[in-house]
Structures are given as structure tokens and as C-alpha cells.
Write a structure and sequence with these properties.
15 strands; Rossmann fold; 9 helices; about 25% helix; alpha/beta; 6-stranded antiparallel β-sheet; elongated; Methionyl-tRNA Fmet Formyltransferase, Chain A, domain 2
Amino acid sequence: MKDKRVVFMGTPEFSIPVLKKLIENTNVVLVVTQPDAFVGRKKILTPSPIKVLAEENNKEVFTPVKIREDYQKIIDVNPDIIITCAYGQIIPKVILDFPKYKCVNVHASLLPKYRGGAPIHAALLNGDDETGITIMYMDEGMDSGDIITSESIKILDNDNINTLSTKLSELGANLLIKILPDIFNNKVKSIKQDESKVTYAYTIKRKDELIDFNKTYKEIYNQVRALYNRAYFILNNTEYKVISIRCENKSGEISKINNIYKDGIGIGSLDKEVVITEFIPSGKNKMLVKSFLNGVDKNKLIGAKVNEEL
């Protein structure tokens, strides 16, 4: 496959295994990624993970602000195939129609389930037992193209967004390299997606990150692992981003700190007590809640309401 000219389009960490495999097995002539972005509280201008990897491998990088308007560079390198994985922009039809072997996307769900930008989050939030990777031909719709192949994996109870993303990115890279010879030899028998089974996984918004203790423990647990270090609650006007929780099989007043344990604080939910064991207080570093408890008056915490000022 080293004779095939490949343009790769991707941006986040999730895309890295795919680009690595393509560099090893094909002739990557251009890498397209999102422009450098300001990151963190100090707003440091930072290249995407894919740009860093591409430059480490002496691959030419193209970072258009709007791919719909600025795409001639891709045409000029005359790719045999374009492969995308979590690129982050809608690709125009002129690009989709250009390569001999079309445009192929690596998507982190079992399509037609979870089209959109947050399929891994959705699988965890909904408590799914399995998810997977779909390799598909691209069309002008959102993840609506014909399916080339797919492969599923189990979602473990202790998986979170980080562990599941790592598993899926590796699976996607291996599945792509496995199917590419068939694509190049025109042996693929793609299938249409069943439109009656389509669901969507839209990008997570700020409002989705607030923990609602009027839900069950399982729902809250799924939110915490899907939004690792993003799901939060507010106590005494301070925001706490939750890292890990466990449960106690007892009832208590919903949205109130009912008990203090050696390892955490117990907040009532719809069915069980949610014990917060690790979090990130606003403006501070990640810490175990047992360490946090050493510096506060525990008696003043008992009975305190969370999210009260919302």
C-alpha cells in the first residue's frame, strides 16, 4: 500500500493511532488538521495532537480555518484516498468526490447508532453494554455514508471516557489497516445504513456537565465516567469537578450531604447515596476527598445542600 497517496484528516488524541498506522503502511502526502488553538487557563497557543505527530514524521501539514472555503491544497496533492478520523469540520462535496478510492471515515460507534461528535460519551452516558468502530464511505450528511465494515467491543463497568477512547482508537486503526487492501482492490461490498435505527450523539454542552442528584446512582455514575473531570456539582458557591464516586445502599435527602465517610462525602440521590471520593475544587488540583476533609469542619458539611444557588 506504500504506492497509495493518502491525505489524512484528524485532530485530537483519538486520531493518533490511525495516523501512525497510515504512516507505517501507506504514503501519507498531506495531513489536514484544525488550526492551533488557545488552551488552558493561561491560553497558550497549542498545535493539535495530530499536527505534532505529523511534524515529528516530517509530513506536510495543512490547517485551514474553513475547509469549505480553503481546500485547494488537498486537490493539488492528488490523493488516491482521503481518510478522516475526528477531524472536526464538515468536508465539502468537491473533496468527497475527488479521490479515486473516495473518502473514508473512522467513526467511534456502531452506525447508524450515535451519528455525531460525541459517540463515546453517549455510549457511556446511556449505560450501553457495547460499542465499536465503523469504517464508512463519506457523503454530505453527518456520518450517514455507506458502511464498509464494523467491529464491536464490550464496555466494562470500570471504563470511562479515557479508557474507552483508547480502546476504540486502537481498534479503529487496526480495523482500517485490515480493510484498506480490499478498498484499494475494489473488493468492498458496502451497505446502506438503516435510517429507521439512526440515533445522534451531539457534542456535550456545559449544561450537560452539571450533576443532577434527582437521578439514580447508576445514571450519575455513567455521567461521571462519561464526562471524566468535567461532571460537577456546586457547594457553598464553589464548583467541584468529580473524578470518582462510589455508592452506599441507604436513603437520604436528595442533593444534601447526609454523611461524611473516611474516603468521601455522601450526597443523596434518587435511590442510593452517592459518595464523592475524588474531585477537583475550583482553582485547585485534583485531590482525594479524604484529604479535603482534613482541612474543613465536617459538622458544617452535614446537611449542606449542593447546587443550591442554581
